[in-house]
Amino acid sequence: MGDDWVTVWVELRDGLTRRPRCSDHPEYPFVETLGRPVVNDIVSAEESGITVRSHGTGKDDFIGAERFRKWWDHLLRVGSASLRTTDPNNPDPWRSSVVGAILAAALPSRLQPDSADPMTLWLFHRARESNRVTELLREGTQAPVESVPRTRPRRPTRPVDTLPCPAPTPAPPPVQPHVPHAAGVRDGRLQTLKLVLEIGVVAVTLIGGIIALVWRSR
Length: 218
What we know:
alpha+beta, rod-shaped, 2 domains, four-stranded antiparallel β-sheet, 7 strands, three-stranded antiparallel β-sheet
């Protein structure tokens, strides 16, 4: 069983023709949208693409073969695909719920919905790994690291002993004691000298007055 797109595309269209018939439209096979019970009739499965008719809207939608191939290439590369349009693991958000449902229904030997999350598709061998991990977690057993399916490679970790040491924080400068400015010292001395001179003048004046009184009394 090859994984090339030509083989898968033929298998997918053949798988749709063998699907159960719709009870309301027995001329069409149908698939149900994953995660919610919406029936989609398969109106045609041609080389160029597939036409589906939703029971929810009653409208026909043509899904080109290139969209299915985009999903298949993503599955081969990553191993899984999400039907949620905002999930980074979603290959193409346009009608992703219907595209994913068709892939899961038409390729049951290749794809399987996740047992814990039906909105995620796995390649069959990856699905078995995922289901085994889920069972171990439910049993309370730690799953081995090598059994956990990965969609992205690990980033290389840097050894702890090679991490650079942080630079030492510089010590704050020493606090210098406050020293009065020289101009302040000079101003203080001038004030003292002025006060002494004023006292001298007053003393001289008093002594002169006393001498004058004594001289007159003679």
